[in-house]
Design brief:
By secondary structure, the protein is mainly alpha-helical. It is built from 20 helices and 6 strands. The protein has helices spanning about 10-15, 20-25, 40, 55-65, 90-100, 110, 115-135, 140-150, 155-175, 180-195, 230-245, 255-270, 275-290, 300-305, 310-320, 325-360, 370-380, 390-395, 400-410, 430-440; strands at about 70-75, 80-85, 215, 220-225, 415-420, 425-430. A hairpin with a 5-residue loop joins strand 3 (about 215) and strand 4 (about 220-225). Helix 9 packs parallel to helix 13. The chain starts with 9 loop residues before the first helix and ends with a helix.
Length: about 450
């Protein structure tokens, strides 16, 4: 990917400007089509009548500078990063507030503790796979899902990376109520990189001055050189203070704070490897920490993977244009919006499938009415345990009838059976919906 052109400095443009008041009056009210263009984009478009590209850029920059809000993240020279609430950021934040936390209305499958795990695990697997693929892991979704669901050992580094991501995302959910500390970041990095590094001791510690780390491509083009290792201790402490709301003094919307945290760790690149995955894990921790509980079920990496160049360009735009984080925030909010939309579409699709199955089940005459009632219940309660006694009491039948009913469902692969002591326990098959489709 080509590095974006660095914009001309405001200072140099002001020096060459003979009549600033005339320029500002000429550019007042000029629209950029609701976008937030970087110089690299702006110079490709025809400027307003009577203005050069430089005039156009200067007018935009002066407007932005008046609205910037600094954050504690500094570049290597000590200049702060900043952002502004450009349109449509306020609208996107309101959408997230209304649709990702608090008392939002979601289908029973997610709000029901007995069924939410199916969607939760599916989301964890999706994020684990796509976040790994962003970092170069090469495997199919089918193989990756089988790896995680079967609980087998990884066969290679690609599978290990995916399993590590899955374990990390589970751990993020467990840590969501804790404040961020250096030790927590190290723990997450250790989980992410376990058994994947050439130097195993590099997991869960800062890179050293001897470990030269840059962000580059296969052709040797360097996109980012992170701050020196000597600054990492101080920068990590500042990042944790920011994540925990200790800085800055003014209000920063929790979603903006989460997005900046993602950028911050990626910018500092404190580790020899695994920085991108750790940065995305911190974003999830921050969202869940601020009670955006829907993000237990959302995969941002799935969206990022569809256009990884846009992800990289959002970082570069921020770095090349006076540390303006607005580019990354706008990009990230769009990713989040699409990810939430996909989740709602997925839930609707699964809900429709479940209703269809239940409708078909009523017509499956190979099952008697007691068996159909049990399978109806099992579809909505996948962790339920059934016994001969519970089935007998539920339907007021003798023991032998209950035994025949449940054993027949096992033979049809609709229930799994296991003996605990002298008693048999029956649970819904893991692929119950698939087996019902075969049966119908």
């Amino acid at each position: 990917m080509k590095i974006p052109g660095k914009p001309p400095s405001v200072k140099s443009l002001l020096k060459g400007q003979k009549d600033l008041l005339k320029l500002l009056s000429a550019t007042a009210g000029i629209s950029t089509g609701g976008t937030y263009p970087h110089w690299d984009q702006l110079r490709l478009h025809t400027p307003p009548s009577g203005l050069s590209h430089e005039d156009w850029w200067l007018s935009l920059k002066l407007n932005r500078i008046s609205q910037y809000q600094d954050v504690p993240l500094m570049d290597e020279s000590g200049t702060p990063f900043r952002y502004l609430l450009a349109d449509p950021i306020p609208q996107r934040l309101q959408e997230l507030d209304l649709g990702s936390g608090g008392l939002i209305q979601m289908p029973d499958q997610i709000t029901n503790p007995e069924t939410k795990d199916r969607y939760y695990v599916s989301s964890l697997i999706e994020e684990a796979i796509t976040s790994s693929q962003l970092e170069g892991a090469a495997t199919t979704r089918k193989v990756a899902k089988e790896l995680i669901r079967a609980g087998r050992k990884p066969r290679d580094g690609n599978e290990q990376m995916i399993l590590n991501n899955y374990r990390t995302m589970k751990r993020v959910g467990e840590l969501k109520n804790r404040k961020l500390t250096k030790e927590m970041v190290f723990e997450l990095h250790h989980l992410i990189t376990a058994d994947t590094l050439e130097d195993p001791t590099a997991a869960g510690r800062f890179r050293t001055a001897d470990e030269k780390v840059v962000v580059d491509d296969i052709y040797g083009t360097v996109y980012h050189t992170p701050p020196p290792a000597s600054q990492l201790e101080e920068r990590m402490a500042a990042m944790c203070d920011f994540a925990n709301g200790k800085s800055p003094k003014g209000f920063i919307h929790p979603v903006i704070r989460s997005i900046i945290l993602h950028f911050w760790l990626a910018y500092d690149h404190p580790f020899g490897d695994g920085n991108g995955r750790t940065a995305r894990a911190l974003f999830y921790w921050s969202m869940l920490h601020h009670n955006y509980w829907l993000y237990e079920f959302v995969s941002i990496s799935h969206i990022i993977l569809k256009g990884p160049m846009k992800y990289q360009r959002a970082f570069l735009y921020a770095e090349t244009d006076d540390n303006d984080l607005t580019y990354f925030i706008l990009y990230h909010l769009q990713v989040m919006r699409r990810a939430v939309k996909q989740l709602h579409e997925y839930i609707k699709r699964k809900t429709d499938e479940l209703r269809k199955l239940e409708g078909e089940l009523r017509g499956l005459m190979v099952l008697n009415h007691r068996q159909r009632a049990l399978i109806h219940h099992a579809l909505r309660h996948p962790s339920q345990i059934y016994t001969f006694q519970s089935h007998r009491l539920s339907h007021n039948v003798v023991y032998e009838t209950a035994r025949r009913d449940l054993n027949d469902l096992v033979d049809r692969h609709l229930l799994d059976a296991a003996k605990t002591g002298k008693a048999w326990h029956f649970t819904p098959a893991a692929d119950l919906e698939k087996q019902l489709q075969k049966l119908s």
